[in-house]
Amino acid sequence: MRHERHYTVEEANEVLGWVGDRLEAMRDAHARLTDEEAREALAGGAPGNGGGRPGRQVGEAFVELQAGLGALSGREIILRDLERGLIDFPAVRDGEEVYLCWIDGEPEVAFWHGLDAGYAGRRPL
Question: Which of 27, 77, 84, 105 has the most CB atoms around its CB within 10 Å?
Answer without folding.
Answer: 77
